[in-house]
Amino acid sequence: xxxxxxxxxxxxxxxxxxxxxxxxxxxxxxxxxxxxxxxxxxxxxxxxxxxxxxxxxxxxxxxxxxxxxxxxxxxxxxxxxxxxxxxxxxxxxxxxxxxxxxxxxxxxxxxxxxxxxxxxxxxxxxxxxxxxxxxxxxxxxxxxxxxxxxxxxxxxxxxxxxxxxxxxxxxxxxxxxxxxxxxxxxxxxxxxxxxxxxxxxxxxxxxxxxxxxxxxxxxxxxxxxxxxxxxxxxxxxxxxxxxxxxxxxxxxxxxxxxxxxxxxxxxxxxxxxxxxxxxxxxxxxxxxxxxxxxxxxxxxxxxxxxxxxxxxxxxxxxxxxxxxxxxxxxxxxxxxxxxxxxxxxxxxxxxxxxxxxxxxx
Length: 361
Description:
The protein has 2 domains: 3-269, NADP-dependent oxidoreductase domain (TIM Barrel, Alpha-Beta Barrel); 296-359, no CATH class. Helices cover 45% and strands 14% of the residues. It has helices at residues 29-41, 57-71, 87-101, 117-125, 128-137, 152-159, 176-179, 182-189, 203-206, 221-230, 245-256, 263-271, 273-276, 296-308, 313-324, 339-343, 350-359, and strands at residues 3-5, 12-14, 16-19, 46-48, 77-82, 106-114, 141-148, 166-170, 192-196, 237-241. It has an 8-stranded parallel barrel, surrounded by 5 helices. A two-stranded antiparallel ribbon has the order 1-2. Helix 1 (29-41) links the parallel strand 3 (16-19) and strand 4.
């Protein structure tokens, strides 16, 4: 296992992290605990969950897992999150989380799921940062972190505020162009960087033909996707949503055979992505600035799900409503001015796709 320093905290954490939102059998506590033990014995020390994962059952399982790790004297860090914004609500939630997780303090506590700068502004007005600072002073949380779905310059602006010690955000060979600017702030503010959805929500292993640009001879698409991320020296943890013990084995095996690329080699790999992902939105953001304020990159990202997923429109809608939290019908505000298509580096028929999304709302 490789360990990297989590920003400026002084904590050394495992490059592979255990994500607690994809257990195949979350109610089989023995199986889930075995998975956590297997990961920890393989060197994994970073364990991430949230209160909404399986309706708090993930945190409950983690509590049992942490007890077993302590019994076996295996080290671990606990990470979880809160949607709450007011002090009373946060304290009530945190108290319940500490009991479920069976720990005295959360190591990495996240302001959960920032989807827009306006959303972030509202949470600040509710006093969330003051509350987090108090909780840290009281020893109930150890590090103040944020989980974000922002893209482009927005995520950079969020992180440049200088209030966080680390960030959790989506980043993979599938969507890396959307969030590359985050690394400017990560370096500038010396933040821990944990990336989620390293397999693109399953898109990468399900469509290996699209991701040959990251694959070396003999590599599976899943192993190549993880190693692509490990090549980024600014990434502290790659968070894998483990479903089974076999998933844990696969991630640990990918680490055993890992040979890092140089920065120059990584840049060359990224340069090949455009041809491989032809027809898909890669999130470059050149289409931003819509006169009707339509968040075009988010709608195009959701349309990717229609192209790649066997569930088509269903995954398109879920991506918009659950990930981006924007209504499909608002795509109908497009006036077909064509400015977005003129600037699109992938030559995507954006207007046509917006009309389609609005039609299935």
